[in-house]
Design goal:
This protein is mainly alpha-helical. The chain has helices at 4-16, 21-34, 43-48, 50-68, 71-83, 88-93, 99-102, 108-121, 129-150, 155-163, 174-182, 185-188, 191-207.
Length: 210
Protein backbone atom coordinates (compact mmCIF):
# COMPACT_ATOMS: atom_id res chain seq x y z
CA UNK A 1 0.00 0.00 0.00
CA UNK A 2 1.21 3.50 -0.79
CA UNK A 3 2.54 5.12 2.39
CA UNK A 4 3.08 8.67 1.12
CA UNK A 5 1.51 10.27 4.22
CA UNK A 6 3.71 8.16 6.50
CA UNK A 7 6.85 9.11 4.59
CA UNK A 8 5.90 12.79 4.51
CA UNK A 9 5.70 12.64 8.30
CA UNK A 10 9.15 11.04 8.32
CA UNK A 11 10.34 13.83 6.03
CA UNK A 12 9.14 16.43 8.51
CA UNK A 13 11.03 14.62 11.28
CA UNK A 14 14.20 14.54 9.19
CA UNK A 15 13.95 18.29 8.69
CA UNK A 16 14.14 18.93 12.43
CA UNK A 17 16.29 16.00 13.58
CA UNK A 18 19.32 16.64 15.76
CA UNK A 19 21.95 14.48 14.06
CA UNK A 20 24.56 12.88 16.32
CA UNK A 21 27.37 13.67 13.92
CA UNK A 22 30.20 12.50 16.17
CA UNK A 23 28.63 9.07 16.72
CA UNK A 24 27.90 8.62 13.01
CA UNK A 25 31.44 9.56 12.05
CA UNK A 26 32.83 7.17 14.67
CA UNK A 27 30.90 4.26 13.13
CA UNK A 28 32.04 5.22 9.64
CA UNK A 29 35.65 5.46 10.79
CA UNK A 30 35.41 1.98 12.31
CA UNK A 31 34.02 0.55 9.08
CA UNK A 32 36.77 2.19 7.03
CA UNK A 33 39.38 0.70 9.37
CA UNK A 34 37.90 -2.73 9.96
CA UNK A 35 35.76 -3.33 6.88
CA UNK A 36 32.43 -5.11 6.73
CA UNK A 37 33.14 -8.31 8.57
CA UNK A 38 31.27 -11.36 7.23
CA UNK A 39 28.74 -12.67 9.69
CA UNK A 40 26.96 -15.94 10.33
CA UNK A 41 23.81 -14.59 11.97
CA UNK A 42 20.99 -16.45 13.62
CA UNK A 43 18.42 -15.86 10.91
CA UNK A 44 15.53 -17.13 13.01
CA UNK A 45 16.42 -14.61 15.72
CA UNK A 46 16.75 -11.80 13.18
CA UNK A 47 13.31 -12.58 11.77
CA UNK A 48 11.85 -12.73 15.27
CA UNK A 49 13.18 -9.21 15.84
CA UNK A 50 12.56 -8.00 12.31
CA UNK A 51 11.00 -4.66 13.17
CA UNK A 52 13.97 -3.69 15.33
CA UNK A 53 16.40 -4.62 12.54
CA UNK A 54 14.41 -2.73 9.90
CA UNK A 55 14.18 0.38 12.08
CA UNK A 56 17.93 0.26 12.69
CA UNK A 57 18.81 -0.15 9.01
CA UNK A 58 16.49 2.67 8.01
CA UNK A 59 17.94 5.03 10.61
CA UNK A 60 21.53 4.15 9.69
CA UNK A 61 20.87 4.73 5.98
CA UNK A 62 19.44 8.16 6.78
CA UNK A 63 22.42 9.01 8.98
CA UNK A 64 24.99 7.85 6.44
CA UNK A 65 23.29 9.81 3.65
CA UNK A 66 23.37 12.92 5.80
CA UNK A 67 27.08 12.57 6.57
CA UNK A 68 28.27 11.42 3.12
CA UNK A 69 25.87 13.66 1.14
CA UNK A 70 25.15 10.58 -0.97
CA UNK A 71 21.88 8.64 -1.04
CA UNK A 72 23.58 5.71 -2.77
CA UNK A 73 26.32 5.45 -0.15
CA UNK A 74 23.77 5.86 2.64
CA UNK A 75 21.64 2.89 1.62
CA UNK A 76 24.60 0.68 0.70
CA UNK A 77 26.50 1.44 3.91
CA UNK A 78 23.57 0.59 6.17
CA UNK A 79 22.95 -2.75 4.48
CA UNK A 80 26.61 -3.72 4.15
CA UNK A 81 27.13 -2.93 7.82
CA UNK A 82 24.06 -4.84 8.99
CA UNK A 83 24.73 -8.00 6.99
CA UNK A 84 28.54 -7.94 6.75
CA UNK A 85 28.74 -7.50 2.97
CA UNK A 86 31.49 -6.42 0.60
CA UNK A 87 34.50 -4.14 0.94
CA UNK A 88 35.00 -0.42 1.54
CA UNK A 89 36.10 0.10 -2.08
CA UNK A 90 32.48 -0.55 -3.10
CA UNK A 91 31.47 2.59 -1.20
CA UNK A 92 34.03 4.58 -3.17
CA UNK A 93 32.55 3.16 -6.38
CA UNK A 94 29.09 4.39 -5.34
CA UNK A 95 30.22 8.03 -5.63
CA UNK A 96 28.58 8.81 -9.01
CA UNK A 97 25.36 6.92 -8.40
CA UNK A 98 22.98 9.50 -6.82
CA UNK A 99 20.47 10.44 -9.50
CA UNK A 100 22.58 8.34 -11.89
CA UNK A 101 25.41 10.84 -11.92
CA UNK A 102 22.95 13.59 -10.95
CA UNK A 103 21.51 13.51 -14.46
CA UNK A 104 17.92 13.03 -13.36
CA UNK A 105 18.07 9.24 -13.38
CA UNK A 106 17.46 6.53 -10.79
CA UNK A 107 17.61 7.54 -7.12
CA UNK A 108 20.75 6.53 -5.28
CA UNK A 109 18.60 5.04 -2.55
CA UNK A 110 17.59 2.47 -5.15
CA UNK A 111 21.01 1.87 -6.72
CA UNK A 112 22.77 1.58 -3.35
CA UNK A 113 20.20 -0.92 -2.16
CA UNK A 114 20.52 -2.94 -5.36
CA UNK A 115 24.30 -3.12 -4.89
CA UNK A 116 23.75 -4.63 -1.44
CA UNK A 117 21.19 -7.09 -2.79
CA UNK A 118 23.68 -8.17 -5.45
CA UNK A 119 26.36 -8.68 -2.81
CA UNK A 120 23.99 -10.82 -0.75
CA UNK A 121 22.20 -12.89 -3.40
CA UNK A 122 24.84 -12.91 -6.14
CA UNK A 123 27.89 -15.12 -6.69
CA UNK A 124 31.64 -14.65 -7.06
CA UNK A 125 31.47 -16.96 -10.09
CA UNK A 126 30.66 -14.86 -13.20
CA UNK A 127 29.07 -17.91 -14.83
CA UNK A 128 26.83 -18.73 -11.89
CA UNK A 129 23.58 -17.95 -13.66
CA UNK A 130 21.52 -19.05 -10.67
CA UNK A 131 23.24 -16.35 -8.66
CA UNK A 132 22.29 -13.84 -11.34
CA UNK A 133 18.74 -15.10 -11.18
CA UNK A 134 18.56 -14.79 -7.39
CA UNK A 135 19.78 -11.22 -7.60
CA UNK A 136 17.32 -10.28 -10.32
CA UNK A 137 14.42 -11.83 -8.43
CA UNK A 138 15.40 -9.86 -5.33
CA UNK A 139 15.79 -6.68 -7.40
CA UNK A 140 12.35 -7.04 -8.96
CA UNK A 141 10.77 -7.50 -5.53
CA UNK A 142 12.68 -4.53 -4.17
CA UNK A 143 11.84 -2.16 -7.04
CA UNK A 144 8.15 -3.07 -6.95
CA UNK A 145 8.05 -2.41 -3.20
CA UNK A 146 9.93 0.88 -3.51
CA UNK A 147 7.47 2.08 -6.12
CA UNK A 148 4.57 1.05 -3.88
CA UNK A 149 6.00 3.11 -1.04
CA UNK A 150 7.24 6.24 -2.81
CA UNK A 151 5.56 6.03 -6.21
CA UNK A 152 8.72 6.12 -8.36
CA UNK A 153 12.41 5.21 -8.45
CA UNK A 154 13.41 8.37 -10.35
CA UNK A 155 15.20 11.21 -8.59
CA UNK A 156 13.32 14.15 -10.23
CA UNK A 157 9.92 12.62 -9.50
CA UNK A 158 10.86 11.94 -5.88
CA UNK A 159 11.94 15.57 -5.57
CA UNK A 160 8.74 16.79 -7.20
CA UNK A 161 6.15 14.53 -5.61
CA UNK A 162 7.57 13.77 -2.16
CA UNK A 163 10.51 15.82 -1.00
CA UNK A 164 10.58 19.42 -2.27
CA UNK A 165 7.59 20.00 -4.52
CA UNK A 166 9.93 20.56 -7.48
CA UNK A 167 13.05 19.05 -9.00
CA UNK A 168 16.03 20.81 -7.42
CA UNK A 169 18.71 19.49 -9.85
CA UNK A 170 21.53 20.63 -7.52
CA UNK A 171 24.37 19.85 -9.94
CA UNK A 172 22.95 21.96 -12.75
CA UNK A 173 24.33 25.26 -11.39
CA UNK A 174 25.75 26.91 -8.30
CA UNK A 175 22.42 28.67 -7.85
CA UNK A 176 20.59 25.33 -7.87
CA UNK A 177 23.06 23.86 -5.42
CA UNK A 178 22.62 26.74 -3.00
CA UNK A 179 18.83 26.43 -3.27
CA UNK A 180 19.13 22.68 -2.54
CA UNK A 181 21.16 23.37 0.59
CA UNK A 182 18.76 26.11 1.71
CA UNK A 183 15.85 23.67 1.31
CA UNK A 184 17.63 21.23 3.68
CA UNK A 185 18.44 18.92 0.82
CA UNK A 186 20.84 16.67 2.67
CA UNK A 187 18.44 16.25 5.57
CA UNK A 188 15.36 15.59 3.43
CA UNK A 189 17.10 13.43 0.83
CA UNK A 190 17.84 10.97 3.63
CA UNK A 191 14.28 9.72 3.16
CA UNK A 192 14.69 7.55 -0.01
CA UNK A 193 17.86 5.72 1.14
CA UNK A 194 16.17 5.02 4.47
CA UNK A 195 13.10 3.61 2.74
CA UNK A 196 15.24 1.71 0.24
CA UNK A 197 17.52 0.15 2.83
CA UNK A 198 14.52 -0.88 4.93
CA UNK A 199 12.85 -2.60 1.97
CA UNK A 200 16.09 -4.28 0.86
CA UNK A 201 16.70 -5.61 4.39
CA UNK A 202 13.21 -7.07 4.37
CA UNK A 203 13.87 -8.72 1.00
CA UNK A 204 17.08 -10.22 2.40
CA UNK A 205 15.33 -11.57 5.49
CA UNK A 206 12.50 -13.07 3.42
CA UNK A 207 14.75 -14.51 0.73
CA UNK A 208 17.64 -15.94 2.76
CA UNK A 209 16.48 -19.55 2.42
CA UNK A 210 14.49 -19.30 -0.82
Amino acid sequence: MNQIKTWQERLAELSTRRWDVDAIRTRLSSMRKNGFRPRDPDWAALRANKDELLDRVQLRAEEYEYITHSCSKGSALALMEEFGLGKWSIIKAMSPFPGFGMTGGICGGVSGSLIALGLFFGSDDPEDYQGNGRSMTAARKFIARFKEELGTIMCPELHQEIIFGRYMDPRASQENFEAFQKAQGYEKCALPPGVGARIAAEVILAGKDT
